[in-house]
Write a structure and sequence with these properties.
- 66% of the residues lie in helices and 1% in strands.
- It is mostly helical.
- It has one domain.
- Helix 1 runs antiparallel to helix 12.
Length: 368
């Protein structure tokens, strides 16, 4: 059987790659100059960028299988307290990150990336502890079917459209338009409350994958199972797509299955290279990201907000943000608009790798 530490190397490397991709896709020099694979799909469909967030949730679910082992997968008072504390803290960090640096409470976005991570983790962890082992897969299937039904019957005439989907209606009704994301041109939150339900199933599928890894002692047999399950999930997601489109903003059930399948295939590659072939040294840079993922992600968002809101260069009509100045004065002259925008993002990935390296060497690991 694979040793626990070996397995974590594979998982931490995968997590590190995911955090690096998060920084790259979130930090282009200019949103006007971004290569297509590094953009989210406008609505239906999935680009490589649309895989990043579900990858993170999947990885969190796999790690959760190992972290909950100490509680024997039972809803003890200690386990429930730990889950509640972690859920609340991550949610509050996300809320404060939304508020920073203006702290305009009248237009504060309630939901967000960290809030989704918190709630998806909390829901999946509760399911993992409360439900018998044999019913967890059943819940995942029924949960995806139930979400499809909710979106179809509670939506409007075009239930999977931006304006008419049930998730939009619920978030605006519950939080109010001023507290919902407006990046799509209307009050709609791609990390809203209703669509957090299938996101929690993404975590649960990761948890079930962790169980599969533990229960499969032979490595090549494990790889066969992961690849087979991955291909099956992708095929079912694609077959579901015509009636419930693959869609990240509403986190459609077909999207859950499709991204789960791709995540299984990527994890299989990491396990093959690291655990089967024994090639581990190349993973060291990725481990720097993977051992402090939450802290590095938060710092990357704070840094960008500081550059935009607090750092300004020039005066009058020539006054620009620090973010814009850095892109236009350093990276555009170096490589032009398109390549310069990419280099800007890669440079930020390197910057936060350096931050992570300092934390790693000082053995500073944020645990929530």
């Amino acid at each position: 059987m694979m040793q626990h530490t070996e397995r974590l190397v594979s998982l931490d490397a995968f997590r590190g790659l995911t955090i690096l991709l998060m920084i790259i896709v979130n930090t282009p020099g200019s949103w006007s100059y971004v290569y297509a694979p590094l953009r989210h799909s406008e609505w239906h469909g999935a680009t490589p960028t649309d895989l990043v967030f579900p990858f993170f949730l999947f990885i969190m679910g796999v790690a959760m299988w190992f972290s909950l082992k100490k509680y024997d997968y039972r809803p003890t008072a200690k386990a429930l307290k730990k889950i509640a504390k972690r859920t609340l803290l991550i949610f509050l960090i996300g809320l404060l990150l939304n508020a920073f640096p203006t702290f305009n409470w009248s237009h504060l976005r309630i939901m967000g990336v960290l809030q989704r991570i918190a709630l998806a983790y909390g829901l999946a962890a509760l399911w993992a502890l409360v439900l018998p082992s044999r019913t967890r897969w059943l819940l995942a299937v029924l949960g995806l079917l139930g979400y499809w039904a909710a979106m179809y019957y509670w939506g409007g005439h075009y239930p999977y459209s931006l304006e008419d989907n049930a998730a939009t209606h619920l978030d605006v009704w519950l939080f109010g338009s001023n507290h919902v994301y407006h990046g799509f041109g209307i009050a709609f939150d791609p990390e809203g409350l209703l669509s957090t339900w299938p996101a929690a199933i993404s975590v649960m599928l990761g948890f079930l994958t962790g169980q599969l890894i533990t229960n499969t002692p032979e490595k090549l047999m494990l790889l066969g199972k992961l690849v087979g399950l991955g291909v099956l999930a992708i095929v079912v997601g694609l077959l579901w797509n015509p009636v419930f489109p693959i869609n990240k903003p509403i986190w459609s059930s077909s999207y859950v299955l499709y991204t789960y399948g791709v995540a299984l295939l990527v994890l299989s590659v990491f396990i093959w290279v690291v655990d089967v072939m024994g090639a581990k040294k190349w993973t060291t840079p990725l481990l720097i990201y993977g051992t402090n993922p939450l802290l590095i992600f938060v710092l990357s968002i704070v840094w960008v907000k500081v550059l935009i809101y607090w750092v300004h260069v020039g005066s009058g009509n020539a006054r620009v943000t620090g973010y814009g100045w850095l892109y236009n004065q350093v990276f555009v002259p170096l490589a032009g608009n398109m390549v310069g925008s990419l280099l800007f993002a890669l440079a930020h990935g390197l910057l936060f790798w350096a931050v992570g390296l300092v934390l790693y060497k000082k053995k500073i690991f944020l645990k929530i």
